[in-house]
Amino acid sequence: MSNEGGVYSIPGQEFSRDTTYITTRITADGRDGFPVEPGRYRLVAARACPWANRTIIVRRLLGLDDVLSLGLTGPTHDKNSWTFDLDPDGLDPVLGIERIQEAYLARDPHYPRGITVPVIVDTTTGKVVTNDYAQMTLDLSTEWREHHRPGAPDLYPEHLRAEMDPIMRRIYTEVNNGVYRCGFAGSQEAYDDAYDRLWTALDWLEDRLATRRFLVGDTLTEADVRLFTTLVRFDAVYHGHFKCNRSKLTEMPVLWAYARDLFQTPGFGDTVDFDQIKAHYYVVHSDINPSGIVPKGPDLAGWTTPHGRESLGGRPFGDGTPPG
To answer: What would you report as the CA-atom Rg of the chain, rounded to the nearest whole angstrom?
Structure first.
């Protein structure tokens, strides 16, 4: 694989994420031509990527392991594509391809946008179905419900959606994407604005979670999954590499306890690989870390220490059960 990375920070400009995705959906009624079928589709993700980490967590929480297979790319990629360098011979064992780019080009030989993960591929054709990560996890919770494990949590309960949706939008714009707006800012002004917005949101979350165990309701929801994948990368990557350095996560008592609570919940911490996370950011973003040096720290032992969040009540899985 070429080590030539892409350009992530454009001088003089603020970072603007391309949010145009392949919006085909896999649904129970198959209205887009892709009905839910056990064994037909393959989720391709990377443990390094926060957007992909979401899908790995949700798939595990819902018990879709035997219904939707999982292919994992390596933690680094070049400007063209993620590659299957963790697999024998560098080939995905189901799709038989070296790069996920091949599945994109099978769908559209002139695909004009970034080759992203997570992505769901139709194994009967080898073509990408969707890379719309935000809709993907919601559909796993709703459209795939018939195939959830017994005791699976309802991560997108109808009676909470009116409260959840604006919270998830704010988490996306200010936190999930906010750290990238800091890290890829091309001017001091763009960075300062992104930094202030990020910390305004993190202070809001610190206050919100001081009196409640989870973001919405008294059980785990999609909102918690979306926040977790940024928090778990914060001290290892975003604090230093992306210059989000007002505080470390470990210096924010509420968010640090909340993140540890989730990390120690089956389905969350067991999907996290800190070595892959650090390798991805520090190696791939060669324009902002030209040395390619991956830091040895921070000390990650604290993630398994007691968090005390049980005192706030709430039950992670409600009337259900943790994944096996």
So the answer is: 19
Strand partners, 82: 77
Which residue in 130, 216, 210, 206 sits closest to 169, CA to CA?
Answer: 216
Query: Does residue 320 contact residue 153 with C-beta atoms inside 8 Å?
Result: yes
Domain 158-312 has CATH 2.40.110.20: no
Q: What's the CA gap between 126 and 104, in Å, rounded?
A: 9
User: pLDDT per residue over 130-163, tens digit each?
Assistant: 999 999 999 999 999 999 999 999 999 999 999 9
User: Degrees (nearest 5) of the Cα angle 162, 166, 167?
Assistant: 105
Residue located via tokens 């720290």: 297
Low-confidence ranges of the chain (pLDDT < 70): 1-10, 12-13, 15-17
Which pLDDT does position 3 carry in this prediction?
38
Q: Where are the domains of the chain?
A: 158-312
From first CA to last CA, the distance across the chain in angstroms is 36
Active site residues: 49, 180
Contact call for residues 91 and 15 (beta carbons, < 8 A): no
Q: Could you identify the residue written with the tokens 């040096």? A: 293
Cα(177)–Cα(67) distance, integer angstroms: 30
Nearest-angstrom CA–CA distance, 265 and 310: 12
CA distance 217 to 237: 30
| Amino acid of residue 10 | I
DSSP count for the chain of H helices, then E strands = 9, 4
For residue 162, the tally of other CB atoms under 10 A from its CB is 8
In which element (H, E) is residue 71 found?
Answer: strand 69-72
In the chain, what's the furthest Cα-to-Cα distance?
Answer: 55
Whether residue 204 is annotated as binding a ligand: the answer is no
How far is the C-alpha of 244 from the C-alpha of 48, rounded, in Å? 19
